[in-house]
Each structure stands twice: as structure tokens, then as C-alpha cells.
UniProtKB/TrEMBL annotation:
Residues 168-214, 662-700 are annotated as: Disordered. SUPFAM superfamilies: P-loop containing nucleoside triphosphate hydrolases, Winged helix' DNA-binding domain. Belongs to the FtsK/SpoIIIE/SftA family. Residues 193-207, 670-689 have a biased composition (Basic and acidic residues). It comes from Ornatilinea apprima. ATP binds at residues 371-378. Keywords: ATP-binding, DNA-binding, Membrane, Nucleotide-binding, Transmembrane, Transmembrane helix. PANTHER family: DNA TRANSLOCASE FTSK, SPORULATION PROTEIN RELATED. This is FtsK domain-containing protein. Coiled coil: none annotated. Residues 690-700 have a biased composition (Acidic residues). Residues 354-544 form the FtsK domain. The chain crosses the membrane at residues 12-39, 45-68, 80-99. It holds the Pfam family FtsK_alpha.
Length: 700
């Protein structure tokens, strides 16, 4: 590895030296047997184009050295093609200008033999001076396109090369093999690594962002074809033993599971008229056999996707004997990730074929994560955080982290993106949510004053006018249950209101819980968090609470997840990204070195202080919410009476309820306010779930 690195550096250096020597020899500053032969050769064939050779040699050398030292400069193929074209058209143009003389070409003048040949071809159809003007025109267009990379040709090539696969990278991704199988279940062609893109990373990453080598790359894992072949045979046999003819027609291997494509066969039945008819096996028959298949394959757990969306087969997902770890670096460089072109692009993991699973937080626009203890939630939140801070500076992205578990997220203390430090006490966390609501309102007022629709247009306008842009804010909560236990109504209403309205103002929520019960993930919360990640859960009931579908109970833990993208509709199985403490430290260190790191007091400090001053207030708010829900009307005087508080306090409470979205705005004239939440919010959901509890856990 090290040897290869030095070789590349040496070749790069030799190319640069060759460029310098050639340049000097072209100007007659140096000579030598070899050098003279070389210079005569390029002068004769390329004429003055020989200077372009110097340029290309030098450029190739510099790019090679930079790329080898992780500082690769984006140099797209289209630019190379345009520059090459420019070189040839220049040579033809020189030749045409020089009167298209073969004698001059042989003396190493004009465009040399090549330039003369090109000019001669065109001259046959378009005699001078038209051909000269034509070559001049082509040269100008290519020069503008190649050097400025705008132009017609650049765009045209853009289109032509749109589907060109990016060069595959040195450090290949996790094993991402897939192959069809022949009749006997043998892989019909060698499993191959799918090309993992690279090369456009630097182009898309903004200036001043941390280098990608701060985070780890994937390790290459080869598909074990013998094992796969064997498992395919056992799946077919197990199904046949239950009277289900089916064929394994392919497989896709991901980091933790291999998905076998099972094509249902036909069974022969006698119809009432005594005739034999062929009937296709129903997918449900295969899906119902997941336990028997797990037994036959001696697999701990097995998930059946029946059918695989958009495919004509059933997917049987068998755990890999040797699961591999998904790392962040290759995902950050991958084409699907870069293609999102979003500052809030999230690299979540790799699917069952090893392809990157990515999502755009600004479109989700909030994310709910659930899973039992030890299933991978905290690792997921840490990976998301690292992914976000690898792509955003502390000026453009702010994070608020709430971690009642006090162990997982505190590792991020000191990160300049973080407001103050990770909050670990429930009372302070409530303060953060209240601040977020106030910040959202403040931002709406700013957007309104600037007559802009959302944070993007606001920031564009601010940039044009040289004003301060608004940073995006991501609030990460590592355990919702604690907050919901201490102040259920306030937490729910704050989360719901933020989830409903905060998107346009650039505030996003990422909320995790290990208790996907309906008193934590209430119906209202669920309805407002359409993007969800389910890690392994205890039962199919929990799985339905999170995903509205079974499946998460069959996951393997350790970052094995189902990602429900609101735009896709069906949950996608993936292995989550893992980031190590070391990677987190490096990224924090990078940002600390690049920012003048004064930790400002948290913006919610004031709110927390004022809350502390009026002790017991939270309790009062909770009671007020309950009362307006019951009474279906709300006014300060009613709260004054029911809560036995003074009028000013009751009026403040009504304002707080309005802020929380529980009651509508003042209608004037002392009229009662509209109650915006139904009495059954939360309750309704609880009832549904009691009913769901009655559903048999396994429909089998
Ligand atoms: N993406 C992953 N890849 C590999 N291993 C993982 C991954 N995610 C989690 N693990 C393993 O699972 C362990 C537990 O993960 P994590 O701490 O994220 O669980 P959790 O769901 O947050 O649990 P708790 O709710 O108890 O905090 C990790 O220490 C790690 O060993």
C-alpha cells in the first residue's frame, strides 16, 4: 500500500520534471540525445502544439501527486476531452493560418503533421478562408468551454456523460455483490463489486470542510460463493419439503444479510371437473414459512420480503456468517449521497445489496428512531451527527443535543456546532423545546419581513445583501421516553408544533426512543414524523407502532434497521453506519482548530431561568392543557377559576397554550379561544393500540 503510494508520487514527479525539460528544450535552453529526439518528434508531429504537450505532462504530474496525497482536485473527464479537442483544433488552426504548408509542418512549425492533416481534411470540403475561420471558431468555443467550463460544449458533454459511471474507488465498499443464478441455484456469473463512485467528492464538497480521511473507509469483503450456493440449495429444499416448489434465481449481498431472490413455482391441482390445473404458489405461503426456513438454515432470525417491491420475486434475507461494518467515508463519497446536493444529506447505511442508503433531512423533514436497548440508536444518532458536521460549518448548522442517558451524546461536547453542551436534565430539555418554539416564531417573523418563503430563499437574499444568514438547526433527542414521562403534554405539543411548522424555518428534529409504546410515540407524534428508522424491537406490535408494518422484530440488532422514507413508502432494510470514538474526536478537533472556539451560553438559558423562577409552572401548564381539552373552550378567566391563580398568571398561561399550539389566537372582545387539540389526542391512539394488542402477534 505504502509502496504504491510512493510509486504514484514518483511518477507524478517524473512527469513534472519531463514537462520542465521538454519546455526548456523547446526553447533551445537545453539539449541531449534523448531530449533532442523527443523534442524533434513532438515538434514535427504537433508543431507549436508541442507546448500543449508540456502543459498536459505537467498537469498530469501535479494531479497525480495531489490525488495521491488526498488533495485531489476535481478534473472531470469532460474537461480533459475539451482541452484535448482544443489542442487539436489549435494545431489545425495554426496550420491553416500558415497557409497549410507541408514543408512548414515538417520543420516543426504551425500545427506539425497532425495539424496539417486535420486542416487538409476540412480544406477538401471548405476551402480557405472558410476553413481557417471554421478552425478559429472551433478553437474559441473550445477554449471558452474548456477553460471556463461553461459553454455549449461543456453542457453537451455533460449530457452525453451524464450516465457515465464514476471511476471505481481504490478502497471498495463493503461486499456489494449480486448475481443471477442458473437453474441449479449456482451463481450464473461471478459476483462483482458494484462500482463505488469517487472523484466528484471534492467538487461537491464546499471549501473549508473537514477532509474525508478523518472518517474511516469500508473494508472490502468478498462474497463467499460456496456458502451462498449452499444456502440457496437449502432454501429450495426447505420450501420443497413443505410442498412449495420455488427456485432461487439470484442473490444480493449486503453488509449483514444476503437477500435470496425466490421465484414461486407452480403446483398442480385437480379442479372440481377432475382436470389437472397448474396454480402459481402464493407469496403469502412462502412468507408464512419464515420460522421453518430459519430452522432449516439454522439462522437466528430471518426476514421475508414478499414480494420485493418492483420485482417478481420474494426476498429471503439470511444473516451473513461474517457481517461487516459500514463506515462513513465511502458513503460520503458515493454518487447517491453527492447527488442529493443538500447540506442536510444523511448517509444512513447500506441496503441488502450494499448500495448506499441516503436521505435528505430537509425533505424528511424530521426523523423518528426507535429500537430496543442495544439495537443501534445512539450509534445511528452519532453517525448522523458526524455526517452533518462533515458537510456543514458551525456558521451554517447548529445542533442542540438532548441526552437523558448521559453517556452517548456527551462525546460531542466541545463540538463548535453544538449550542453550549449536551443537555442531560429533563427540566433543561423542556427549556430547549420551548426555545425552539420561540426561535421558530422569530424565524417566521424574519421570513415574513423579508417576504421570503423559506430559509433557503431567505439565506439567498441575505447573501445578496451581505446580511447574516440563518443557520439550520437540528435538535437531536436520544431518549424521548424520559421527556414524555416528565411532561407528556408539553413535550408532545412542542414536538408536534415544531414538526408541523419548523421545516420552512430550517429547524429539524431527530428523536430516538427505546420505548416505541403509544404513550411515548403517540398518534400525534407519529403522524408528524413520516420519516422513521426502526431498529430491532421486541415484538411485531412495537414494529407496527413505528412503521405501521411488521418486520422490525426480525432485525438482527447492531445497527440492522428498516428505514421508512416518506417518499418511498415501503421500509428499506439497511445496515447503519458505525462511527468510532476516534472518528468523532478527530472531527471535533478539526472544527475546534478551524473555529475560534468560544463556547457561547445556550440560547435557552434565559427560558430555563425564567421557568425556574416560577416553580411549578410546568405543572400548571400541564393542568391547563388537560382542562381546556376537557372543557373544549379556553379563556383566561376560566383558567383563573379552575386553577385558582390570579388573572395575570392565567392570561400568561393562555399565551403559553397558544405558543404550544393547544389553543388558537385571541378572537378579541373577551371571546373564548378555539381549542385546537381534540380531547382524544393521545387517548385515541392509546385505544387503537389496545385493540392492536388484541391482534394476534403473528398472523400466521
Ligand atoms: N451500525 C452499527 N454497526 C455495527 N455495530 C453496531 C452498529 N450500531 C450499534 N452497534 C453495536 O451495538 C451496540 C449498541 O448500540 P447503541 O449503543 O447505539 O444502542 P442503543 O440502541 O442506543 O442502546 P441504548 O438504548 O441502550 O442506549 C454498540 O456498542 C455496537 O457494538
Amino acid at each position: 500500500m505504502r509502496g504504491r503510494r510512493y510509486t504514484a508520487d514518483t511518477i507524478g514527479l517524473l512527469l513534472v520534471v519531463a514537462a520542465i525539460i521538454t519546455f526548456m528544450a523547446l526553447l533551445d535552453f537545453t539539449e541531449g540525445t534523448l531530449v533532442s529526439v523527443w523534442v524533434r518528434f513532438i515538434r514535427t508531429w504537433m508543431g507549436w502544439g508541442a507546448f500543449a504537450v508540456v502543459f498536459f505532462l505537467g498537469l498530469a504530474g501535479v494531479l497525480l501527486i495531489l490525488a495521491n496525497n488526498e488533495k485531489s482536485v476535481a478534473f472531470p473527464l469532460k474537461r480533459i476531452i475539451v482541452l484535448e479537442g482544443l489542442m487539436f483544433s489549435l494545431m489545425a488552426f495554426f496550420s491553416a493560418l500558415g497557409g497549410q504548408s507541408l514543408q512548414r509542418a515538417s520543420q516543426g512549425l504551425d500545427g506539425g503533421f497532425i495539424g496539417w492533416g486535420l486542416a487538409e481534411i476540412v480544406d477538401r470540403f471548405l476551402p480557405a478562408p472558410i476553413s481557417t475561420i471554421l478552425w478559429g471558431g472551433i478553437t474559441v468555443v473550445l477554449a471558452v468551454s474548456g477553460l471556463g467550463l461553461t459553454g455549449l460544449v461543456g453542457n453537451l458533454l455533460d449530457r452525453l456523460l451524464e450516465d457515465e459511471p464514476l471511476e471505481s474507488e481504490g478502497q471498495a465498499a463493503e461486499s456489494v455483490a449480486s448475481a443471477p443464478m442458473d437453474q441449479k441455484g449456482t451463481p450464473a456469473r461471478k459476483a462483482r463489486k458494484s462500482p463505488e463512485p469517487k472523484g466528484h467528492a471534492e467538487l461537491k464538497r464546499g471549501d473549508g470542510l473537514p477532509p474525508l480521511d478523518l472518517v474511516l473507509p469500508d473494508k472490502t469483503v468478498k462474497a463467499d460463493e460456496t456458502n451462498i450456493h449452499d444456502t440457496a440449495r437449502r432454501i429450495e429444499k426447505a420450501l420443497a419439503d413443505f410442498g412449495i416448489p420455488a427456485r432461487v434465481v439470484g442473490f444480493r449481498q449486503g453488509p449483514t444479510v444476503t437477500q435470496f431472490a425466490v421465484e414461486p413455482g407452480f403446483v398442480e391441482k385437480t379442479n372440481p371437473d377432475g382436470e389437472m390445473v397448474r396454480q402459481k404458489v402464493r407469496v403469502a405461503q412462502i412468507a408464512n414459512l419464515h420460522r421453518d426456513l430459519a430452522l432449516a438454515l439454522s439462522a437466528e432470525r430471518l426476514r421475508i420480503e414478499a414480494p420485493v417491491p418492483g420485482q417478481a420475486f420474494v426476498g429471503v434475507e439470511v444473516p451473513n456468517a461474517d457481517p461487516s461494518i459500514v463506515r462513513l467515508r465511502n458513503l460520503l463519497e458515493s454518487r447517491p449521497f453527492l447527488k442529493m446536493r443538500s447540506p442536510l444529506a444523511l448517509a444512513l447505511g447500506r441496503d441488502v445489496s450494499g448500495q448506499p442508503v441516503v436521505g435528505d433531512l430537509s425533505r424528511m423533514p424530521h426523523l423518528l428512531i426507535a429500537g430496543t436497548t442495544g439495537s443501534g440508536k445512539s450509534v445511528c444518532i452519532a453517525a448522523i451527527t458526524v455526517c452533518l458536521v462533515m458537510n456543514n460549518s458551525p456558521e451554517t448548522l447548529k445542533l442542540a443535543m438532548l441526552d437523558p442517558k448521559m453517556v452517548e451524546l456527551v462525546r460531542f461536547n466541545g463540538l463548535p456546532h453544538l449550542y453550549n453542551k449536551v443537555e442531560t436534565e429533563p427540566e433543561r430539555m423542556l427549556g430547549v423545546l420551548k426555545w425552539a418554539l420561540a426561535e421558530m416564531d422569530r424565524r417566521y417573523r424574519l421570513l415574513e419581513a423579508a417576504k421570503t418563503r423559506d430559509i433557503d430563499s431567505y439565506n439567498e437574499r441575505a447573501a445578496r445583501r451581505g446580511e447574516n444568514a440563518l443557520p439550520r438547526v437540528v435538535i437531536l433527542i436520544d431518549e424521548l421516553a424520559d421527556l414524555m414521562m416528565s411532561a407528556p403534554d408539553q413535550t408532545e405539543h412542542a414536538l408536534v408544533r415544531l414538526a408541523q411548522l419548523a421545516r420552512a424555518t430550517g429547524i429539524h428534529l431527530i428523536v430516538a426512543t427505546q420505548r416505541p409504546s403509544t404513550d411515548v410515540v403517540t398518534g400525534l407524534i407519529k403522524a408528524n414524523f413520516p420519516a422513521r428508522i426502526a431498529f430491532n424491537v421486541a415484538s411485531s406490535i412495537d414494529s407496527r407502532v413505528i412503521l405501521d408494518a411488521n418486520g422490525a422484530e426480525s432485525l438482527l440488532g447492531n445497527g440492522d434497521m428498516l428505514f421508512l422514507d416518506p417518499e418511498a413508502g415501503t421500509p428499506l432494510r439497511a445496515q447503519g453506519v458505525m462511527v468510532s470514538d476516534n472518528e468523532i474526536e478527530k472531527v471535533i478537533e478539526y472544527w475546534q482548530q478551524h473555529m475560534n472556539g468560544e463556547v457561547e451560553p445556550a440560547p435557552w438559558e434565559e427560558m430555563i431561568e425564567s421557568a425556574a423562577q416560577s416553580e411549578g409552572q410546568d405543572d400548571l401548564v400541564e393542568r391547563a392543557i388537560r382542562i381546556v381539552k376537557e372543557e373544549r373552550r379556553a379563556s383566561a378567566s376560566m383558567l383563573q377559576r379552575r386553577l385558582r391563580v390570579g388573572y395575570p398568571r392565567a392570561a400568561r398561561l393562555i399565551d403559553e397554550l397558544e405558543e404550544l399550539g393547544v389553543v388558537g389566537p385571541s378572537q378579541g372582545g373577551g371571546r373564548e379561544r378555539e381549542v385546537l387539540v381534540s380531547k382524544d389526542d393521545g387517548e385515541e391512539q392509546r385505544n387503537i393500540d389496545y385493540n392492536e394488542d388484541e391482534i394476534e402477534e403473528d398472523p400466521e
